Amino acid sequence: MRKFTSEISEEDFGKKVTLYGWIHEVRDLGGLVFVVLRDREGFAQITLPKKKVKQEVFERAKNVRRESVVKVVGEVKKEERAPNGFEIIPEEFEVLNEADAPLPLDVTEKVPAELDTRLDHRFLDLRKHRVFAIFRVRSEVLNATREFFHERGFIEVNTPKIVSTATEGGTELFPITYFEREAFLNQSPQLYKQTLMAAGFDRVFEIGPIFRAEEHNTVRHLNEATSIDIEVSFTDHNGVMKYLEELIVYIHERVVENCEKYLNWLNVKLEVPEKPFERITYDEALEIVSRKEEIPWGEDFSTPALKVLAEHMQGYYFITDWPTESKPFYAMPYENRKEICKSFDLMKGWLELASGAQRIHKYDLLVERIKAQGLDPESFGFYLEAFRYGMPPHAGWGLGVERLLMAMLDLKNIREAVLFPRDRQRLVP
Ligand code: ATP
Ligand code: AMO
Predict the structure, then answer these.
(1) Distance 17 CA to ligand 1 centre (A)
(2) Which residues bind Mg(2+) 2 (predicted)?
(3) What is the band of 398 on the pLDDT scale with cuts at 50, 70, 90?
(4) Buried b vs exposed e over 61-84: b needs ≥16 C-beta within 10 Å?
(5) What confidence tier does 411 reach under pLDDT thresholds 50, 70, 90?
(6) Is 82 in contact with 45 (CB distance < 8 Å)?
(7) What does the pLDDT average to over 145-168?
(8) Predicted model pTM
(9) Angle, helices 237-258/401-409, rounded to nearest 10 degrees
(10) Is 355 part of any known ligand binding site?
(11) What residues are labeled active site?
């Protein structure tokens, strides 16, 4: 029977199993050869005593090159000296595909490699259990997210990624040629998720790519990222902040429950955060920051400023009530203090994970805010129309999946959280 190496237990002792995997290591001791077979879930020691296995099997195993793909059929034997307490004495040892040598990257990590080299040969890098573990956790995060929202009556949607307008100020758009016209890769599903509120969907979520032409090279920016977006009708910023903190807690619970092995591979002790997360206003954050960094009121916090703030804030926290001018046009200003708006960022330490807001749902105010930000209401035609014929009050947020993984797994570079990252220098693989 085909098994993953991790599925072999005492019950298999004395029984025959079939394993498929890669050659992690070969140790040739003359009359005895040890082959370490690696698959997605672990390792198995294949032991070949010259006198006990077929000659051709012995020769094949002895000469097989590292990272070749093999099929091994053999009996499982209890062996306390072997890493998992068992070994396989092979009857069959078939090389399904021989790997070339030398390898461009050492999967055993005896020869360490820089991130760039790792990313250049990502398929080999991903064979490392520690690296693979990040994507097991990522898969659990996305699965938990879907369950969380389905249980709460949300509808999963997919909105266009080829679009005609910008939504977020600050970062640039990637232009593309769309037949005879210019178009762009979408920065955020913002306009579409809001439009769906006018369509009466009430609660939507989307997990999809966002594209941002960030020119700078940082450890927390990608040019293609994955965003979890929600939009909810008949609620405000406080309502969607509750969804956000509940989701973060739920994701942690699910990962702790289902990814223990992968967290161990990553050497991460993940703790489930407590609700509610601390909330501080922009003004309060500015007060803390200004003890060390000078940020004029109204501006976003720089990275050094956020690092000052992080010294004072533990775990996940929200920064609320941002200056209206620092947030996109769609954020709802407070009625009694128009210079601040009903918006928030979710932070962990110095890292921003999500931002969101109650949205403006009144047409006139929205047009006014679009103009105030130096944008042309004409280019928001389809979006603005939705506000004229029954747009409910609504709120939402966007959460970066890679940023969340960075925070949960203590990754030092966001590129670690993407299979094939896109940055200023990198378009392949
Ligand atoms: P055996 O009687 O099982 O062949 P051994 O100690 O005589 O064992 P050696 O040929 O001396 O075997 O093995 C060389 C090295 O391999 C030793 O360090 C030994 O501890 C180790 N070794 C031998 N068999 C195993 C095994 N099945 N799993 C892990 N290590 C082993
Ligand atoms: P914002 O622009 O803050 O808000 O983006 C939301 C979240 O997306 C992630 N993110 C990124 N991750 C990696 N690399 C990037 N270049 C990058 N850009 C953004 C971050 C960020 O917090 N429309 C609003 C959301 C809303 O209000 O609903 C928006 O896009 O984790």
Answers:
(1) 22
(2) 352, 355
(3) very high
(4) beebebbbebbbbbebeebeebee
(5) very high
(6) yes
(7) 94
(8) 0.93
(9) 50
(10) yes
(11) 212, 214, 220-221, 352, 355, 403
Q: Compute the distance between CA of residue 123 and CA of residue 140 in angstroms, rounded to an integer.
A: 21
With tokens 């002895």, the residue in question is: 62
Confidence of residue 403 (pLDDT cuts 50, 70, 90): very high
Q: Residue 170's pLDDT band (boundaries 50, 70, 90)?
A: low
> Whose Cα sits closest to atom 14 in ligand 1?
29
Judge whether 294 is annotated as a binding position.
no
CA 49 to ligand 1 center in whole angstroms: 10
Over residues 149-176, the mean pLDDT reads 89
Determine the residue of 46, 78, 81, 89 to mutate for testing ligand 1's pocket, defined as the one with the most ligand atoms within 8 A of the Cβ atom. 81
Per-residue DSSP letter, 240? H
Q: Going from the N-terminus, what domains does the chain have, and what CATH number goes with each?
A: 5-97 (2.40.50.140), 123-417 (3.30.930.10)
Ligand positioned closest to the Cα atom of 394:
2
Q: Is the CB of 190 within 6 Å of ligand 2?
A: yes
Q: Please check whether residue 340 is in contact with residue 327, taking contact to mean a CB–CB distance below 8 angstroms.
A: no
Residue 8, H or E segment: none
The single residue listed with the structure tokens 């161990």 is: 264
d(CA 279, CA 313): 10
Is residue 172 scored above 90 in pLDDT?
A: no
Q: What is the residue whose two structure tokens read 């999963």?
A: 156
Count CB atoms within 10 A of the CB of residue 281: 15
Q: Tell me: is residue 422 an annotated ligand-binding position.
A: no
Burial of 85 (0-12, 13-18, 19+ CB in 10 A): middle
pLDDT score recorded for residue 167:
72
Contact 390, 193 (CB under 8 A): no
Angstrom distance (rounded) from CA 354 to CA 319 = 11
CA-proximal residue: ligand 2, atom 24 (nearest)? 398
